[in-house]
Each structure stands twice: as structure tokens, then as C-alpha cells.
UniProtKB/TrEMBL annotation:
GO molecular function, one term: nucleic acid binding
SUPFAM superfamilies, sorted: Ribonuclease H-like
Protein name, entry field: 3'-5' exoribonuclease
Organism: Hymenobacter montanus
Matching Gene3D superfamilies: Ribonuclease H-like superfamily/Ribonuclease H
């Protein structure tokens, strides 16, 4: 199985009413050299200025981004190119990131190449640490900048460290 670490930025709390502005993905392997970055034009007139500000983009700027259907098709093609096996979605906050990626794939392409499942990096670490109050974020090497490729890379680095330093049984 091929783990794809994903991070998204949005202009609101849910897909459909609000828009995914950008997302990044990293194929989890030792090199972390296969990445995808997509910037998507809003699908709704609604947005929350504070949520959009996290992405570092203005409303005027995001209105010039690519059509979501095109970006999602490119992401699907990238997944097919870098994965020799079944792709597995994993993210820091899969309840949020998965919701947008899944919705956008189904809405624009009619199917999600990840299937119906996702994994949560934070929950995985809590299990390793045997403590629901622990966080994995100290395992990141790349700074958390809210650029989705940086954030996905940092989370992938944390997953690699869980394997190396904590003996997590996982194949890449």
C-alpha cells in the first residue's frame, strides 16, 4: 500500500458551502520526493475571511486559481503515477482534510481513488505513545507554514520517525 500524506487549506469549515483553496500531497517514502500541489478556484461565494487568511491568499488571488475539476483530475493522475499499489490517505487532521478531498473527488470526478477510508496521524501517534493527550508535532522536521506541501512533508517526516524511532510496523 502507498501512503499519501495530505494537507488542505480552505476558506471555511465544510466543503460545498465553502471551498478548498489549496492542498498538498507527499508520497511517503524515505526520499519524500514525490509531491503534488493544487490551487483551486472557489466553488462558492461564501468564505470566512479568517479561514482564508490562514492560507496566506487573498480572495482576489484565489479567484484566479485553477478550475477544481482540472486540479482533481491532475491529482488523480499523479496518484496513479506515483502509486504502484493501493493509495492510502493519511493526514494530521483527517476529519477535516479527508472531508474536503473526498467531497471534491466525488463531486468533480465521480469517484475517490482513495476509496472510503482515511487514517489520522495524530491518533496513530497517541496509540504509539499510549496517551491520548500526546501530540506527534515534535517529530516534524519541516516547519508548519500552512503551505500544504510543507505541512504534508512535515507530517510525512513525523510518520517516518514513528517507524524508525518507535518501531511502527508500516510498509512504504
Amino acid at each position: 500500500m502507498a501512503y499519501i500524506m495530505v494537507d488542505i487549506e480552505s476558506d471555511g469549515p465544510i466543503p460545498g458551502d465553502y471551498s478548498m483553496i489549496s492542498f498538498g500531497a507527499v508520497l511517503v517514502n524515505e526520499a519524500l520526493d514525490q509531491t503534488f500541489y493544487g490551487k483551486l478556484k472557489p466553488i462558492s461565494e461564501k468564505f470566512i475571511p479568517e479561514a482564508l487568511a490562514v492560507s496566506g491568499h487573498s480572495r482576489e488571488e484565489v479567484l484566479t486559481f485553477d478550475e477544481p475539476a482540472r486540479v482533481m483530475a491532475q491529482f488523480k493522475e499523479w496518484i496513479e503515477r506515483v502509486c504502484t499499489d493501493r493509495p492510502l490517505f493519511i493526514s494530521d487532521n483527517n476529519g477535516f482534510d479527508w472531508m474536503f478531498i473526498c467531497w471534491y473527488f466525488h463531486h468533480f470526478l465521480g469517484r475517490n481513488p482513495f476509496g472510503h477510508s482515511s487514517q489520522n496521524l495524530g491518533s496513530l501517534y497517541k496509540g504509539i505513545a499510549k496517551d491520548t493527550f500526546q501530540t506527534f508535532k515534535h517529530l516534524r522536521q519541516t516547519a508548519h507554514t500552512h503551505h500544504p506541501v510543507d505541512d504534508a512533508r512535515g507530517n510525512a517526516q513525523a510518520l517516518l520517525r514513528m517507524k524508525k524511532e518507535y518501531g511502527l510496523k508500516i510498509k512504504f
